[in-house]
Design goal:
By secondary structure, the protein is α+β, with helices and mostly antiparallel strands. It is built from 2 helices and 4 strands. The protein has a 4-stranded mixed sheet with strand order 1-2-3-4, with helices on one face. Strand 3 and strand 4 form a beta hairpin. The longest helix is centred in the last third of the chain and has 25 residues. The protein is elongated. The relative contact order is 0.17. Associates exclusively with 100S ribosomes, which are dimers of 70S ribosomes. One of its GO terms (molecular function) is ribosomal small subunit binding.
Amino acid sequence: MQITIRGHHLAITPAIEENIRLKFAQMTKHLDQVNSMQVKLSKDHQIDKHSKKGSANHIAEAIIRLPGTELFAQASADDMYTSIKMMTEKLKRQLEKHRKMQLDYQPLAI
């Protein structure tokens, strides 16, 4: 399995990279059919006029490629670790739904 981590307007630190790899390893522990994963971390530099702060400006996006399908999730928060956590929770729900659909599938017997 190949994990690609990119940063846009953001330097990828070893701690962030290790956090992502650990979360994805736990999430895909029971799925051996994952082909590749792409994670894009970015920081939006827009500032709110009233509070002079950037709100929800750390964005995490991920694409997981499985045979025949792609799963996508995006999350944004004030902190990069929070946005990564929210994104992995969204992907975990999608993977569980995909796995349940595969287990429930029964081909027609002719």
